[in-house]
Amino acid sequence: MKTDRATLDARLALIGRQPFRAKFHLRAPEREFVAFRGMDVVRAHAVDFIGQRLAPAQPTKDGKQTPWGGHPVFRAQHATGTCCRACLQRTHGIGKGHELTDDEREYVVDVICRWVQLECDARHTRRDHASQQRR
């Protein structure tokens, strides 16, 4: 079940109004990772990370399983409230105590990847705007 882009964008805009979530942005090494490897690799990594760290009914070290950075998916998880089962429940209404379904996994990956894409797009827009102002 693919979530449409407008729904994801509306959800991310709402989440982005939360002060804690709003402070997260991709850092230079994470943006370079996306530029070099591409969104297909980011998506594959997101599928893997979610499957291992978030999808189990009782994730290992739940609440502490997601690093704060080092990979664009990790930053995105904190920015989107998909970093642990408590945040997933609070932010997206996906309850704890059960293994994530295929649809829930796909939704989480879609949220993460859309946030990464928006971050990369915003970075290009800000850079283009700044270069035009210098002219």
Explain this structure.
It is a single chain. With 135 residues, this protein is mainly α. Helices cover 67% and strands 0% of the residues. The chain has seven helices and no strands. It has helices spanning 5-15, 19-22, 28-37, 39-54, 72-80, 85-92, 102-134. The protein is globular, with a radius of gyration of 15 Å. The termini are far apart. Mean pLDDT is 92; it is low at 128-133.
Keywords:
mainly alpha; globular
Topology:
Layout: H1 5-15, H2 19-22, H3 28-37, H4 39-54, H5 72-80, H6 85-92, H7 102-134
Helix pairs in contact: 1-7, 4-7, 5-7
Give unreliable regions as ranges. Answer: 128-133
The largest sheet, given as strand count, sense and whether it forms a barrel, is: none
In what range is the share of β-strand residues?
under 5%
What general outline do the C-alpha atoms trace?
A: globular
Number of DSSP-assigned strands: 0
Q: What is the N-to-C succession of helices and strands?
A: HHHHHHH
Give the assembly state of these chains: single chain
Helix content: 55-70%
Structural class: mainly alpha
Total count of helical runs of at least 4 residues: 7
Distance between the termini: 46 Å
Q: Round the Cα radius of gyration to an integer and report it.
A: 15 Å
Q: Determine the mean pLDDT.
A: 92
Brief write-up:
The chain has 135 residues and is mostly helical. It has helices at 5-15, 19-22, 28-37, 39-54, 72-80, 85-92, 102-134.
